[in-house]
Known about the structure:
Elements lengths: L8 H10 L13 H11 L3 E7 L2 H15 L5 E4 L10 E2 H7 L7 H11 L5 E5 L9 H10 L2 H4 L1 E7 L3
Parallel strand pairs: 1-5, 2-3, 2-4, 4-5
Helix pairs in contact: 5-6
Amino acid sequence: MADIATPSFDKNYDNLVHNNDEMQIFNFDLSEQDVLHLQEIFLTCGVHTIKTTNVATGRKILESVVGSLKYYQNIGIITHENGVDTKVYDILRDIKNQGLMTDNIIADLEDFFMVHTCFDFVWVEFSQLLSVDYAIHLQNIFTMYYAQERMPVIFVMYDQL
Length: 161
């Protein structure tokens, strides 16, 4: 794999949403250059986007790169998919378990991040239940709480849902 598409929402959110099909897709067969590039992304504060074939591959890539860095201790995930690694804090599951889940996921996440600002890395899995249409709203949440200046946030898009 040559270059891995990782557009920043600060620069071209519209480009990401409208050209999502044109983004290069990762699979788990990563070259050394791909791994080094991903590690650089995962160590750079701000919102980044990667696209993988499916949830299982995306998680495998994320867990592999984060594990190889041995840097992050408090990792959060925003997802509606099951099977989250126990080492990762499932933010939506926590909101639901506390009985705070409403029908407005954006408001729920705003409330959550107002209180819980202790993450050093967050990834967001866009799926059928959490569509890419929420991306700009999530970006606004991370901007509002200065997360972009304190940690990397990885938006993960999937080719197959």
